[in-house]
Amino acid sequence: MAEKSTNVPRPPRGPRGRGVEKPKDAVGTFKRLLVYFKDYIVPIAIGLICVAISSLANVASNYFLKPIINEAIIPFIGHENPDLTRLIQILLTMLAIYIAGTVATYFQRRLLGDMAAKVQEKIRTNVFDHMQTLPLKYYDTHSTGDMMSRFTNDIGTLRMMLSQSMPQLLSSVITFVGVFITMLFLSWKLMLIVIVMLIIMTLALRVITKHSVSYFIKQQRVTGEVNGYIQEMIDGQKVIKVFNHEDTAIHDFDGLNDELNRCASNAQFLGGIMWPLTGNLAYLQYAIISVVGAGMVISGTMDVGTIGSFLQYSRTVTQPLNMITQQASTILNALAGAERIFALLDADPEVDEGTITLVNVKYGPNGELLETEERTDIWGWKETLEDGSTSIRLLKGDVRFDHVTFAYEEGHPVLNDISLYAKPGQKIAFVGSTGAGKTTITNLINRFYDVQEGTITYDGFDVKKIKKDDLRHSLAMVLQDTHLFTGTVMDNIRYGRLDATDDECIAAAKLANADFFISHLPQGYQTMITGDGENLSQGQRQLLAIARAAVADPPVLILDEATSSIDTRTERLIELGMDGLMKGRTVFVIAHRLSTVRNSNAIMVLEHGKIIERGDHDSLIADKGRYYQLYTGMFELS
């Protein structure tokens, strides 16, 4: 049976006091949701039938006040031995209705709750799976908080809509219709009084809500400004004290705080008067019906049981209207959230038109390359030719840029006519100011983005012809901003190659000079890492990232500021290990510390998306150009 609540209608409100957020296409969004319901038709149908039974049981229970008064009480007033047979019959009937309503409510919540949980699981799975297919550009243009809200707020609100709001909305509609018809059946004259009072209540609420919602919105906006200002002042306390701006900070905060106080006071005042106003109107309605009904009973046009039952209904008639208003608001917010979920699901996945794959190979009796299932640490590119046959080319790590131009946003090129090559086993370094395009070059090698002009070849193949997974499998990157996952140290190293043995992971850690600090951790390689490695220093996190790349054992290695957070002594030790890691591999290095690129085969100096100098360390120093200025400190990197 429907739960009891106050009989005062509440204004439409969204979550956490915000205004109702309306979807752009509620009907279209709901139709898309129906696809997720197709596997649960039977439990949904049974659940909705239970909603109807529960609602009608709630409506019917109040009606029995009439026969109890008229048939089981009034006829026996003054009798010493009244016949209670009729009273017992009515009470047993009411008990059966209450039991039926209770059982229906249990099955309604169980069936629809389970359905909502399964739909939520399916949607969450679809969203997460689809996110794995999205290109890096999508993550660059959408904040992490926004995407997280799809998983938390939007999907959670959607579950509330399916398991509670929609059943309660249906229950409220059935209850209101049932109460309205029953009251009309009991007395259409008294029903006119109820209709007039409902109109007055609705108009009063509309006027108050119109003003209160605006203040609630202002309150939320100013609250955000106050919280943001407080956070900014806390983060900037050192600067505030250095420049003696304490009084200015206090003055500005007082202004914001006063504005918040004004908005909050008005919002609370208008929100607060709704309850006494509508409550008093409800009591006034009850009093009018009592007076008019009493007069009708005295005149003989109405019996006592009817007025008693009608008065009971009059106290609950606004309850379903209240619930309809609340649940309609919640459903609109949930559908708006569903639109955001579907917008993510509609985002175009990363396109992969490549056909060339990476395979393990071994040498045949005549020196030919043969594909094999076993891991040989020798890799080849497998290409399917037009006649259906296949050819295998040894993976060497030859990477070339041919007149490449690229822009993240049209009209704002980041790279301009870049041409370069890295022969197998060479170490190529990129140096230059922030924003010069160094990291962009490595992003293009991985095909995180595709070039607008020019070509990038890998062992003679256009990278667009190589399947992205296989292309990236042949590369390993060590980024400046390391990311560690929740798990053990060993798990994080093994993330570079999931089939790596413990011994291989330890060997990789030694190569990266990470074994020493790992062995001094509380549980060594089994030490748990949480919070993106908050229990480790930034340098230690980078050492693990280098070990992760080492265990991947790739033919091409990309180091993007890999040693930026490591002290000079550790850096020298790492370089010794990195020499072993880089041996026989093509390596791309981005570095601000120019001491780390001295032994590179070629150094590219970039500025504004163009290569302005190239050569080895000695030749660039001899030229006394930009690299010479950077190396000698005449021009600082920024």
The whole-angstrom Rg is: 37 Å
The low-confidence runs, each spanning 5 or more residues with pLDDT under 50, are: 1-19
CATH topology (level 3) name of the largest domain: ABC transporter transmembrane region fold
Count of alpha and pi helical runs: 20
- Main pleated-sheet profile: 6 strands, mixed
Domains counted in the coordinates: how many?
Answer: 3
Strand order of the largest sheet: 10-13-14-7-15-16
- N-end to C-end Cα span: 69 Å
> Beta-strand level of the residues, as a percent range?
5-15%
User: What would CATH call the class of the largest domain?
Assistant: Mainly Alpha
Number of strands: 16
CATH homologous superfamily assignment of the largest domain: ABC transporter type 1, transmembrane domain
Query: Could you estimate the helical fraction of the residues in percent?
Result: 55-70%
Q: How would you state the average pLDDT, rounded?
A: 83
Shape call: elongated
Explain this structure to me?
By secondary structure, the chain is an alpha/beta fold. It has three domains: 15-346, ABC transporter transmembrane region fold; 357-394, no CATH class; 399-632, Rossmann fold. It has helices spanning 26-37, 41-63, 65-73, 85-131, 136-141, 144-186, 188-235, 237-242, 246-299, 304-316, 318-346, 438-445, 468-473, 489-494, 502-511, 515-519, 538-552, 568-582, 617-623, 626-632, and strands spanning 357-363, 369-371, 379-384, 390-394, 399-409, 412-422, 427-432, 453-458, 461-462, 475-478, 487-488, 528-529, 556-560, 586-590, 602-607, 610-615. The chain has a six-stranded mixed sheet, sandwiched between helices. A hairpin with a 5-residue loop joins strand 1 (357-363) and strand 2 (369-371). The longest helix is centred in the middle third of the chain and has 54 residues, at 246-299.
